[in-house]
Amino acid sequence: MNASFRCPECGQPVEDGLIEMVFEVGDNRVTVSNVPAKVCPNCGQEFVDGYAAENINRLVDRVIEDVDSYAKKMTRPLIIPRQIVITA
Ligand SMILES: [Zn+2]
Questions:
Q1: Which stretch of DSSP H or E encloses residue 60?
Q2: Ligand 1 centroid, distance to 51 Cα (angstroms)
Q3: How far is the CA of 30 from the centre of ligand 1 (A)?
């Protein structure tokens, strides 16, 4: 993506920004903040670079696995929805 990348929704040039991505996996909610992205100032569409998105997905998978294996070691099951926040 370069500076001339335009929003496919409305055709406005997008700007660099940091966004928050939320993943819901089972009972887990994983929020990844400070993700570098292109943001449309007009309609708010967010575009994450494919390579970055792939890395974030992998990171989220790892975190979910770790949390689940930790939860299994607890004598009492976690009954509250889990909220995990990762700052990229
Ligand atoms: Zn737009």
A1: helix 50-73
A2: 22
A3: 26
